[in-house]
Amino acid sequence: MGFLKNYTESSFFGLLKTEYPELIPQIMPHPEIKQNLVSSTTIAAVKYKDGVVIGGDRRATVNGHIVINEHVVKVFKTDDHSAIAIAGTFGPSVKMAKLFQVELEHYEKIEGIPLTLEGKANRLSQLIEQNFPAAIQGLPVMPLYAGYDLDAGHGKIFEYDITGGTFIKPKEEPFSTSGSGGDRAASTMEHFYRDDMNESEAMELMIKALDFAAKKDAATGGTSYIIKSVSRDGVKSLVG
Is 41 tagged catalytic? Predict the structure, then answer.
């Protein structure tokens, strides 16, 4: 990239949008074709006393019932103290997760300090907003974002709508689910959640919720799950 004349901020996404908009990952459906795709997956996040556990299944389907892959990755570490799980249209979701990783790394390199957790969540919101034209034609990206707030001393979960609206889960509802099996996973969380769980117990609850979703939802499954924990000590892979 040559000399940048028009951009002096610390957002990598802002840099692309200003100087190189053609490089922003995006899918643009034909304007006369509306896709009929669902968020065919199950992802979830649940708080425990020292952080958050976030996970998802590994099955990729077409229209929710034709299995094309049993080994896809839907949960990603985004930086040292946060992770993202993706639901929605798989291709755009993965591209967004990767761009979000670069966005956080770029900011820290330019500013010398990481964004606050809320700041990171807001940056993800901007990326989802960028995808809105595709979302209204049936190609949504609907992630869950989980992180450990070093200042507050506890984990937080953020969920989004297709416009990029950010909703932090309140203390009295310390879990979130999304995707085609999300309702069944949420029912499991509601029944078995305890606010004094440790990391191992939260992981077991996550597995129970994903198992329950997979029993009735054909779009949820795969050979294993991917589950990560986020705490003051960082992001750790628990399963997968």
Answer: yes
